[in-house]
Model the fold of this input.
Amino acid sequence: MPARMILALMLGMLVLPACQQDEPPLTTESASQDDQDEPQVTTESASQDDQDEPQVTWESYSDAGLEAQEQARYAEAEQLYLEALKEAGKFGEQDPRQPTSLNNLASLYYTQGKYSEAETLYQRVLTINEKALGPEHPDVATTLDNLAGLYYMQGKYSEAETLYQRALAIDEKVLGAEPPDVAPPLNNLANLYSESEHPAVASNLTNLARLYQPQGKYAEAESLLQRALVINEKALGPEHPNTVNNLNDLAVLYQYQGKYAEAEPLYQRTLAIREKVLGPEHPRVVGTLANYAALLREMDRHAEADKLEERAREILGIAR
Done:
């Protein structure tokens, strides 16, 4: 097999088809998290001063389940999460341990591609949180994001869009919005999503953009990504992972449309930041090298592409 093909297979990141991106769709990203490729796993506990035995047991099962999931010991994680769910049931459905346990189990099923099981659990979490917290609570928005990400992975774009839009509306309302004249002008779609400057809103915008790209809604996706980039640069800084992921997404979008002049400086900026922040041999750097090389080949700049691919191979230890 040619070395270039081996490189592409190992990276799994080359962006040639529509919407095959360096980052998968976001779900529950926040200002303190890197770009996530899975729904959030939580181990929050109910606010109470006296930690009784069931509470300690619930926490132990939840923490152990999280550790097992992170280490890909999925069968063990499932049993631990089920035990945590059993313990949570002792506190009643309105207690936050119940939806937390359901969410953790749903995230595990999502990771394993068990989408039907995950959907059922996310729906239960949504029902519980809406009843206990109200329909406009941030936790409801988080569950909507998780469920939308699940639909996205199954190609159910219409259902995903509806949920992403609802999550975005909640975050904007709860987190507040700046006056319209503060933000740069956007198209009608982006204006519809107001001018909130919170990173959670940027995540919602990014989710929608990644949803629109494979549907060929490039103008809408571009406007949303640009808005997300402005928010993240302002709120998190120009070198934060969320900001860099927006740069990469925009580069991907421009590349797919043949807007090579617009895509190249974004790949260059993405590469420079990731090398500085993550180190020159980080997997994300390798992915950016591969994406940039693919762009250069489309521009018939094969000698430059060869150099980037050679560097990626050296990092991965692949012989030519």
User: Anything to note?
Assistant: The chain has two domains: 1-18+216-320, 58-179. The mean pLDDT is 80.
